[in-house]
Amino acid sequence: TSQFEKGVYFVRLVNGTSTVTKKLVVN
Length: 27
Prior knowledge:
The protein has one domain. With 27 residues, it is mainly α. It comes from Acidiluteibacter ferrifornacis. Keywords: Signal. This is T9SS type A sorting domain-containing protein.
C-alpha cells in the first residue's frame, strides 16, 4: 500500500506542484 501511495504522490507531483500544495492545504 505504501508503494501505491508513493506512486500516486509521484504522479501528482509530475502533474503539477500546485495540485500537491492544494491537497496538502486541504488536508
